[in-house]
Structure formats: C-alpha cells, structure tokens
Amino acid sequence: MARSxxxxxxxxxxxxxxxxxxxxxxxxxxxxxxxxESAAELDEKKKERKALNEAIxxxxxxxxxxxxxxxxxxxxxxxxxxxxxxxxxxxxxYQTMRHALGMPVQTDMxxxxxxxxxDS
Length: 120
Prior knowledge:
67% of the residues lie in helices and 0% in strands.
C-alpha cells in the first residue's frame, strides 16, 4: 500500500454536494484513490492496535498467573508512568480518600519502628 503524503487540507474535496439540489457531485478519481488509501491505512492501524492489545492482555494475564490483582497491577503501571508531581498529587488524593472512607493507609512499619527506637 502506497502511503499518501497529502495533508488533510489537500485531500478535501470542496463542495461535494450541490447546494441547490442536494445531489452529490462527481468526485475526482485522485480524490477517490486518496480516500481508499486512507481507509486501507486506517484498517492496517486497527489491525496493529488489535495485535498490540492482545499482546498487552497476555502480559497482564502473566501477572494474574503470579497471583496479582489485575487492577492493582494496572494502577502500579500507571503510577510508574507519572512524573514526580503527578505521583505526589496521586498519593495525597489516595490517602485523603482512604481516610475519608474510613480505610486509612497503613503507616510504613519501618518508620514506626524507627520512631519507637527514637522515643525509647
């Protein structure tokens, strides 16, 4: 499939409909060819996306086979992709919501031990 180098504005066929009669005007063969190429390109991208989605699903299935919760894994992967400011905001929001719902996040046990050692 030859990839069309035409931009969207170059591809636009002006006045495809007769304003008086509402009938479709004939379009140029070049325009039709470009539309077909674009449709074929879109179809190919959809097939590629389907293959990628299947590969990603297989990887998540591996995590499930290890006994991990799929939603928790997805959340961790999303968290990994965040920048530092987004992570801080996420952490604050998560802790606030857990507290508001009566399910506070467990404190870090290592921090608790260190605090107890400092207090003694």
